[in-house]
Design goal:
By secondary structure, the protein is an alpha+beta fold. The chain is built from 14 helices and 8 strands. The strands form 3 sheets. The chain has a 4-stranded mixed sheet, with helices on one face. Strands 2-8 form a two-stranded antiparallel sheet. The chain has a two-stranded antiparallel ribbon with strand order 3-4. A hairpin with a 3-residue loop joins strand 6 and strand 7. Bound molecules: iron/sulfur cluster (SF4).
Length: 345
């Protein structure tokens, strides 16, 4: 185990001198800090920057986001993925608006009860915005701690993560927010997964893995499970009024997002007609395809154009399609129709 508080001071000094300039580091507004942490979950800093700037311009305070139209919010979030994050965030800020007079609670026990606030978001926001003595343990921090302590336990286990959190909190310096950010910054810029820059690492004196010349053995790597593959036919169902059939999603993960009808490749045309109660023309050759890689799965999609003469409540004018919130996978499919003969969005 490495020695603190020498370690703490060294790391904090390094952070003050070397931290990257990021837009959410220029604010002390708890709402904006919270928004940035919600965006940064599962998403890279470089991707988040333009979204964060757009959001704080359009929704400049907690009330503006709480009162926003959900469909407009989802549209603005489009491309960031994990859409539950923004839905939960809006739910939580609405609660803050009602219960706490639009002020983000600075008492952890209140903040942790809000929707979407788990150990990481809770620790990050409470420490950065209010300097509460809580750790914020993300993937970067787990990697750094496993190397510093030469800790061979499985860092994906909740019990191990809890332990790491307690370890950090035990000797947490007063500048808790900066300390958490310093650990994350170290993991993001120096103690990186594949090419750690140990030579210039500010805390190399404290690193047990480096002393043992075993840096790359930590953290323990679990065998990656192969991604599951799914094959779909995606239908552009068009009518003679320049409209297209789009389905508004109801399932939890993509709730509120629009999707083209998507079916397993062996689904018959008859069952699709039955599902939407629409007679459909025979599809021609596919107009294109797209492979979309998610964290744990891969979709292989082929697009087909079919026509119908009947009405359906889910028809949307083609000119409005691009104003609707859609996953990136579906946007890629929608783009296919631009190149298809006789069709234009
Ligand atoms: S010395 Fe190397 S392995 Fe250890 S914390 Fe620094 S960068 Fe990471």
């Amino acid at each position: 185990m490495f020695k603190r508080p020498v370690f703490n001071n060294t790391l904090l000094n390094w952070y003050q001198a070397n931290k990257r300039e990021l837009p959410w580091r220029e604010t002390s507004d708890p709402f904006k800090i919270w928004l940035s942490e919600v965006m940064l979950q599962q998403t890279q800093v470089i991707t988040v920057i333009p979204y964060f700037k757009k959001f704080i311009t359009k929704y400049e305070n907690l009330d503006a986001l709480a009162d926003a139209d959900e469909q407009a919010l989802l549209k603005d979030w489009e491309g960031l993925g994990y859409y539950n994050r923004i839905r939960n965030f809006q739910h939580a800020v609405k609660e803050v608006q009602e219960k706490y007079d639009s002020k983000v609670p600075d008492r952890p026990e209140e903040f942790f009860k809000l929707k979407g606030v788990g150990p990481y978001i809770g620790g990050a926001v409470q420490s950065i915005a209010f300097n509460n003595q809580l750790a914020a343990v993300d993937g970067n921090v787990l990697r750094v701690m496993s190397r510093l302590n030469r800790d061979g336990r499985d860092m994906t286990k909740a019990s191990v993560q809890k332990d790491v959190k307690h370890f950090i909190e035990k000797d947490m310096p007063l500048e808790a927010g900066d300390f958490n950010q310093a650990l994350m910054e170290l993991g993001a810029t120096i103690c990186t997964p594949r090419t750690p820059k140990c030579v210039i690492c500010p805390v190399k004196e404290h690193c047990e893995a480096l002393k043992a010349n075993e840096v790359m053995q930590y953290p323990l790597k679990k065998k990656q499970k192969a991604k599951q593959e799914y094959y779909y036919n995606v239908y552009f169902i068009l009518n003679d009024k320049d409209e297209i059939l789009l389905i508004k999603q109801e399932d939890d993960l993509l709730k509120g997002m629009y999707e083209l009808p998507r079916f397993d490749v062996d689904t018959s045309l008859e069952s699709i007609e039955e599902k939407y109660d629409l007679p459909l023309s025979q599809p021609g050759a596919p107009i294109g395809d797209h492979k979309h890689v998610f964290t744990h799965k891969i979709w292989y999609m082929e697009g087909y154009i079919v026509y119908t003469a009947n009405e359906h409540e889910n028809f949307i004018p083609l000119k409005d399609v691009k104003t609707l919130p859609m996953s990136v996978a579906m946007q890629k499919m929608i783009n296919l129709i631009n190149t298809a003969p006789d069709s234009e969005l």
